Amino acid sequence: MKMKKLNFSKIYSFRCGQKPNFRTENPQIGKQGYSRVVLCNEQDSFESDFRNSYADNSVRSTKYTVANFLPKSLFEQFRRVANFYFLVTGILAFTKLAPYTAVSAILPLCIITGATMVKEGVEDWRRKKQDIEVNNRRVIFHKGDGSFEYTEWKNLKVGNIVKVKKDEFFPADLLLLSSSYDDAVCYVETMNLDGETNLKLKQGLEVTSSLNEDFKFRDFKAAVKCEDPNANLYSFVGSMEFDGQKFPLSPQQLLLRDSKLRNTDYVYGAVIFTGHDTKVIQNATDPPSKRSKIEKKMDKIIYFLFCVLFLIAFVGSILFGIVTKRDLHNGVMKRWYLRPDDSTIFFDPERVAAASAFHFLTALMLYNFFIPISLYFSIELVKVLQCIFINQDINMYYEELDKPALARTSNLNEELGQIDTILSDKTGTLTCNSMEFIKCSVAGVAYGRGVTEVEQAIGNISNNSPMIHQQVNRSEPESDDIREARDRKESVKGFNFMDERIMNGNWVNEPCADVIQKFFRLLSVCHTAIPEVDEGTGKVSYEAESPDEAAFVIAAREVGFKFYKRTQNSLSMKELDPVSGDEVNRTFKILNVLEFNSSRKRMSVIVKDEEGRILLLCKGADSVMFERLAKDGREFEAKTLEHMNEYADAGLRTLILAYRELDEEEYNEFDNKFSEVKNSVTIDRESLIEEVSDKIERNLILLGATAVEDKLQNGVTKNFSKENVSVGSRLEISTNYIVLLGS
Predict the structure, then answer these.
(1) 43 and 179 both lie in a single domain
(2) Residue 616 pLDDT > 90, yes or no?
(3) The predicted structure's pLDDT at residue 514
(4) pLDDT at res. 458
(5) Where does it sit, as one GO cellular component term (predicted)?
(6) Cα(605)–Cα(603) distance, rounded to whole angstroms?
(7) Is 27 part of a structural domain of the chain?
């Protein structure tokens, strides 16, 4: 169940515990920065003050507490203009100015505000029950001597070793130690954190990958030094000391609370951040006091009614003063029955100004029905009924995930019908985020048949435009043989490519067969995907960090470059030997992985092949790749750029593929610097890694470009009347998606 999230002040230094002399050995502990220290599996040896300095693992998402419910809820009620007005008139009802009894003014106000406060309390109690359910979830933790037992989430402490099973949520931010896979990999679903549905690959350190059984933790000891609690979901800087050696840590080893373990039987992890120190809670905000547009607009209407009410009371008090002054004529009261005396000035002709002022206040109370006291309560009642209807609305039921609509709060129901602008990303929201490899350019030759969804839309809306026809016709039409082959071939998710020139091993007959081999070999090697073999059918599927990466590996497999095995240090594949015509095994030793991020816009792996050559394989955006090409590596640049523009016009996502061969001395120099910065625990570690990586990713040789299609979600085009796009990819791609939306 997804929690409501809170925002708490950042705490810059906590400590899981330490040996008696740890502070003197590490004087930086307690200072702002990268100073958190965790002694894993040494809970009993921690000094009590250090254990208590950490946040516990319980969370609270409620708006109120027992102590602050009454004052805070009363404030919420009386910050409403009408309620505050009735409160003032209720207080004045205890004076002689009131034209009615105090009970008749106070009792309705108490009933109305009390009922609304009860509604607020019930909704907050539901949130409290959710917190109790989350805090009392059970997880397996190491109690010592290699034995594990169940405990509640709220009892976990920093440094505990826990075992999380398949389809369970992580109870805290954990350092991945090992998993049911030999290579300490696992798959994580982070939909509750960032809305992404594709699984993310995490991998523990090789040195702890063998800790995959309970008894192996009997004597396990490790010290982790890392960054302090912060809200960055995609950052984690630290190092782990184990067996006398120091190993760098990265986000690849961090399992975040509120994410779920998928496609992995179990993992072991060490608790790094707990409770309010976890990244998901650090990212959250305090439960706000939400007020809808209608309620705010109603306040303006009430202000207008107040003006009218004040005008009526003011005019009435002036007329009252005039009439009262005329009551006294030649010392005789015309309205003798009013009998004013020294104890009252309400109708005293000799004190007209004061009598008029009192009449003004009396009129404000007398005409208070002008603003109905049940106004807010009626709206609150309607909102509660709306919540009931929303929860039971079959049209809001998502059958695929068996999820009905759930209204957790009733404050903003009416906002659902007032939305006129949606700020959204394109990939995965407007589109399916299910990439299909459809075309490619290799050695300056375009491969791949067929017309994309965008090209079809452009053709449909501009049948009489020669320019549009020319654009659509750039893609060669499928021949009858190709169409029949496509119909016979079993559909493969992620692969919508067909070209007889390179399929079924025909690539060996192409003029640039060696470049084609390097191109698809790069697709088969330059990634972080993990192969999974179905024991029943023997078919290989892939779990990748992104749909793009999965599509590339699948495309390489379908062409004949079959990646089938990965360890922490090696990768194995099968490919067609162009000389012998036989399928041969290739094994590459993985030396380094230079990971993709939004600033680098590229990913590289450095591998050593069976001949001992050290190769840097790189794929990335054209905006950063072309400038990294060597002078003698630009042979196909002009044709590749031309093809990429055509692919972009067709709405396809493109990447450039390039490589270079490294000599031993150059690689060793790079590896020493790379290891040094990866082991550092400083605020600028990521920038240092990028700087070192940038120096080696130069003088590349261009191989070609890929093109994948990401189709729109069903029904998207029917729900937009106007689109404004902030371009994050190539301008042509975003422009053509706008055309597709408008079609």
Answers:
(1) yes
(2) yes
(3) 94
(4) 64
(5) plasma membrane
(6) 7
(7) yes
Numbered residues of the known binding site for ATP: 425-427, 549, 596, 619, 653
Who has greater pLDDT, 13 or 597? Answer: 597
HEC-encoded secondary structure of 409-467: CCCCHHHHHCCCCCCCCCCCCCECCCCEEEEEEECCEEECCCCCHHHHHHHHHCCCCHH
Q: Annotated binding site, which residues? A: 425-427, 549, 596, 619, 653
- Which of 93, 70, 84, 74 has the alpha carbon at shortest distance from 373? 84
CATH number of the structural domain spanning residue 201: 2.70.150.10
Mean pLDDT of 601-613: 94
On whether residue 353 sits in a domain, the answer given is no
Rounded Cα distance between 457 and 460, Å, is: 5
Specify the DSSP element, H or E, that contains 191: helix 191-194
Say if residues 144 and 112 touch (Cβ distance below 8 Å). no
Is 296 part of a structural domain of the chain?
no
Q: How far apart are CA 401 and CA 420, in angstroms?
A: 27
* Same domain membership, residue 665 and residue 530: yes
Domain ends where: 257, 282, 307? 282
Helix (H, G, I), strand (E, B) or coil at 392: coil
Q: What confidence category does residue 337 fall into, taking pLDDT thresholds of 50, 70 and 90?
A: low
Environment class of 217 (CB within 10 Å of its CB; exposed 0-12, middle 13-18, buried 19+): buried
Range of the domain at 221: 22-59+138-282
Which of these three, 251, 282, 313, is where a domain ends?
282
H-run or E-run covering 594: strand 583-594
Flag whether 65 is in a domain: no
Same domain, 526 and 575: yes
Find residue 614's DSSP bridge partners.
608, 662
pLDDT band (50, 70, 90) for residue 597: confident
Q: Give the residue numbers marked as catalytic.
A: 425
- What SS3 state is found at 492? strand
Classify strands 238-242 and 614-620 as parallel, antiparallel or unpaired: unpaired
| CATH code, domain with 683 | 3.40.1110.10
Q: What is the count of structural domains for the chain?
A: 3
- As annotated, the binding site for Mg(2+) includes 425, 427
